Amino acid sequence: MNIFSYLQSGLSAIIPFVILLGILIFVHELGHFLVARWCGVRVEVFSLGFGKKLLKYKKGDTTYALSLIPLGGYVKMFGEQPGDNISEEDKKHSFTHKNVWQRIAVVIAGPLMNFFFAVLIFFAVALIGEDAKTPVVGDVAQNTPAYAAGFRSGDKIVSINETQVNTWEDLQRALSLKENHNLHIDVVVQREGSEETTKIATDAKAEPNPNVLSSYEYVANVDGLTPYSAGTTIGVLQGSPLAALGVQTGDSITSINGQKVAYWRQLEDTLAKQNSKEALTLEVLGMREGDKEAKPITVTLAPTESIKTYSMASLGFESSELYLSKVMDNSPAKAAGLHAMDRLVSINNVTLKKWEDVINNIKSFDGKNPVAVTVLRDGQNLNLNITPKMTTQMLPTGTEEKRYTIGIAPIANIAAPELMVVRSENLGQAFVRGVEKTWDVSVMTVMSFVRLFQAKISPKNIGGVISIGQAASETFKIGLTQFLQMMAIISVNLFILNLLPIPVLDGGHLVFYAIEVVKGAPLSMRKMELAQQVGLALLMSLMIFALFNDFTRILGL
């Protein structure tokens, strides 16, 4: 995507961004405002945004304003500066002259409002209904412990150790461990296409939790047990029957003679059941020149003498995962002459079967001799020599890994996990769900700071206003529930961030008041001013760093 496209994307994100941030800022400042008024403090200004006031309205002692820069807000209270000259009569309305516990209440009210607002949002989402992954097992390879234990692709997990499982999240929670110990599990599954249940007993091996933001250090894992399945995105061989019908590499088969197919494992069996003496009708999802999104396409193959049975081989297609979707600019692959849609055949004379083989062979580069890569292009094998370069890759866990790469990406062939709508049955259940979700997100946010300091996740994951804008825009496009959930997550982040003990933030003020409680007297003006300056410098540095991360991610640096 070029810079112009990113600018367009940025402009389209403005409205959702302003809605999301405006509501969260209003909620935060409303907390300060309400508790200040409750404590008898005169509030002079309640502003959404900073800078020049675009709209303002005065009622009583307070001016309510909408200001130019929508990246924050503030509540200006009478007497909030310790050096202000205040008459005896006005001291009863002065923030500084309130007792320390009242000042603590006013300051902490903003972050707490963000926390309670997140509970309210998750409560509403629980009533509306939220998407969750079904507890259905994905592809189970025959050479895995999961297969040996008795799990099969498409099994629906009903319970684990007599605890009911409704979603894949429930399963993950049941397998989360605080300590490093193996776990015996009794799992009840419902086999695909059957209403009967099967009991599977097996041992799960304790392993470090791949989710570094979880407070659980370990998970009980059965190798091969996953919710993910290969999809139906295909690579079409040149000169094949499908190529003659106009089906292209990157298309996804969605039905065969009217029978829906969602997973790769379904294709061969479904094709084999079709009568080769009759026409074969395929529905595929694909993009053609001029399309902005994939569209359904129907093709019909007339029966021919050359095709005795319908199969992947006879129709001339295979999985797309060894076909290249992209060759990065200024990469070793680009310099060597690799093109998008090339099909990888072998590396150093090792035949490739899956994308993992590509990664492992490139990672094992010795740093000396170029890697011999064979690709299929226009029906001909092409041999190329490519010298990988050391790069830093961001892993899904948020950590960075240095390894050799050549600058290529595959045409992904992963089916979206099957989703279900989870809805609370009553208000009480919805409230409990709201509290649980808010607590879970709070723990994850705190753990993100802990892992940053432990260097277990990369500081490149820190995002700024651009990241928030993009998240707001993307979730806004998907639907109301997703947008509300993103708002709740950011509200929790504001709750945690504002409680950090950094002067300028609410947490910094709370530190000052905590010292005052212990000492019995406030810190000197000089010390507070110095701390405020240091805090402002830290906060500005963090904001600049977050913006730097946003721009480097956008520009692909």
From TrEMBL:
Name this protein carries in UniProt: RIP metalloprotease RseP
Membrane topology type: Multi-pass membrane protein
Subcellular location: Membrane
SUPFAM superfamilies: PDZ domain-like (SSF50156)
Gene Ontology molecular function: metalloendopeptidase activity
Pfam families linked to this entry: PDZ_6 (PF17820), Peptidase_M50 (PF02163)
Residues covered by the PDZ domain: 298-353
Keyword Transmembrane helix: yes
